[in-house]
Amino acid sequence: QVQLVESGGGSVQAGGSLRLSCAASGSIVSINNVGWYRQAPGKQRELVAMITSAGSANYADSVKGRFTASRDNAKNTVYLQMNSLQPEDTAVYYCNAEIRSYDSSRGSSVRGYWGQGTQVTVSS
User: What is the DSSP string of 13-40?
Assistant: First the structure.
């Protein structure tokens, strides 16, 4: 069974930094694209960054130049470095990963997995 666990959230003042981690565990064969999403109270979940299996990343305009996604394939972990945080970055942050896993009864399969989310609060 595959699990995604996010960590690294917290409370910071405007201008501060945080690094989020998204760690996958289980019978993982490979991790393809991984997206970082956020959802602020009363708003829809939005994609803020997407990193491919090769490490190429794209960003929402609102975070471009401030956020950097990276990954350590050996650790099955993806990171989101967030700098120059602003109050409007306050949200629950989630990772979503497309993972190929192996199960002895069903063989290999690919599906998307969500983490449980981690709260980021930025005060002015």
Answer: ETT--EEEEEEEESSEEEEEEEEEEEE-
